[in-house]
Amino acid sequence: DIDECATSPCKDHQYCLNTDGSFSCKACDASCVGCTGEGSDKCKTCAPGYMKEDEKCTDIDECNLPEKVCMKENQDCVNTSGSYKCVCSEGFQDKDGTCVQT
């Protein structure tokens, strides 16, 4: 078997998996920018919205940062994988970018 992975035939956001007589390119974990294998512990660097923690790229909870990310009145922060979104608090709805009482 020739190790085709030695020549790095895959794209930047993929890793190479050598198989008997061939190879395949597999997608890196969403938390990675470049990787050497499967999972968030094989990242070359962490993607935006992720940080290295215990040798793994883990999601940054922007909603728990000391600096508030959702600045509008009656708005709540919802953490998402690699990011966050601002939504109107319960009992309020978005009307032209402002959260008004329903």
From TrEMBL:
Alphabetical list of InterPro entries matching this protein: EGF, EGF-like_Ca-bd_dom, EGF-type_Asp/Asn_hydroxyl_site, EGF_Ca-bd_CS, Furin_repeat, NOTCH1_EGF-like
Cited PROSITE patterns: ASX_HYDROXYL, EGF_3, EGF_CA
GO molecular function, one term: calcium ion binding
Family matches, as SUPFAM superfamilies: EGF/Laminin
Positions of the EGF-like domain: 59-98
Keyword vocabulary terms for this entry: Calcium, Disulfide bond, EGF-like domain, Glycoprotein, Repeat, Signal
Pfam family, one: EGF_CA
SMART domains cross-referenced by the UniProt entry: EGF, EGF_CA, FU
Family, per entry: Belongs to the CRELD family.
Name of this protein: CRE2A protein
Native organism: Thinocorus orbignyianus
Lineage of source species: Eukaryota, Metazoa, Chordata, Craniata, Vertebrata
